[in-house]
Amino acid sequence: MTRTVVVTGGGTGIGLAVAAAFAAEDAHVFITGRREAVLSKARAELGDRVSTVVCDATDPVQIEVLRDRLPGQVDVLVNNAGGNRELDAAAGRLGAVGLGGQPGQGPDDLAALAAAWRANIDANLLSAVLTTAGLSRRLASGGAVVHIGSFAADRGAGSYGAAKAALNSWNLFLSRQLGARDITSNVVAPGYIADTEFFGDRGSEEFHNARVAETMVGRAGYPDDIAGVVRFLASPAARHITAQVINVNGGAVPTR
Ligand SMILES: NC(=O)c1ccc[n+]([C@@H]2O[C@H](COP(=O)([O-])OP(=O)(O)OC[C@H]3O[C@@H](n4cnc5c(N)ncnc54)[C@H](OP(=O)(O)O)[C@@H]3O)[C@@H](O)[C@H]2O)c1
Question: What does the pLDDT read at residue 220?
């Protein structure tokens, strides 16, 4: 049976690799994002099994539009849209919301601090909450929801890390609700993943080497490393895995 898969933020990086993995199994994949040109380019790359919907996952109205574009049944939802809005602001990509969440900089401007925190909570937590709620009635029994978290949740990474930690916490609540409908819900928490737009212009060789040095395997992660785990979690072999955070970080953050 052909599965219907929704990947938020599916036009670049990890989301694009996840979309490619599901398209390769002949699923009908819907990718979303805020930039139409990026989505069109991804569709041209991935082929006819992929449909695009411009949708800001933090906007309830746009999620309703997305829902209206989808078929009656969604088998897999991948809440991948997100990013560190503090990095984006520092790079001037989203306007100056301020770096008040960073230690040592001091929250002199509380309005800027509030905006910075709200931006990351919206981008990384509310985006997943709203998309899941908006599509909830469409989610099929036997299906899977996968959220892309981050190892930042365990590393004291300001508002971004706090938002991803909240995602882990909310996943426990969600997985109990969805479990009653035979739907799994898990977080995949990547470590440093190269070949994405996440770091913008910060991706110098020195920066890359420092991230690689934190791993036990001596290499960066790549979007396909995450896509393979997401696809596994949405496979028949993973039906007894739910309410978990699966860390994919090359050993940068060991667990016991
Ligand atoms: N790269 C890493 O090292 C790393 C590590 C840990 C976790 N992560 C997480 O992995 C996920 C994917 O990031 P990535 O590394 O692949 O970076 P990326 O290339 O920047 O991908 C993020 C994608 O999400 C989309 N997006 C962002 N905000 C959105 C919104 N409000 N609504 C809809 N789409 C939105 C972006 O497209 P538009 O701008 O066009 O909307 C973009 O296609 C994120 O949740 C990120 O936090 C990444």
Answer: 98
Cβ(62)–Cβ(53) below 8 Å: no
Cα 231 from Cα 124, distance rounded (Å): 21
The reported pTM is 0.95
In the reported structure, the alpha carbon of residue 36 is separated from the centroid of ligand 1 by a whole-number distance in angstroms of 15
User: CA angle 78-155-186, nearest 5°?
Assistant: 25
Residues with a known catalytic role: 160
Q: Which domains does the chain have, with CATH numbers?
A: 4-248 (3.40.50.720)
Name the residue with the closest Cα to ligand 1, atom 23: 9
Which residues have C-beta atoms less than 6 Å from ligand 1?
Answer: 8-9, 11-15, 32-35, 38, 56-58, 80-83, 123-124, 127, 148, 150, 190, 192-193, 196-198
Measured distance CA(114)–CA(98) in Å, rounded: 9
**Ramachandran assignment for 13, one of left (phi > 0), alpha (psi -120 to 50 degrees), beta (any other):** left
Q: What is the mean pLDDT of the chain?
A: 94
Other C-beta atoms closer than 10 Å to the C-beta of 203 total: 15
pLDDT for the residue 222: 98
pLDDT at 105: 52
What's residue 107's pLDDT? Answer: 53
Ligand 1, residue 199: give the atom nearest the CA: 1
pLDDT in tens, 14-27: 999 999 999 999 99
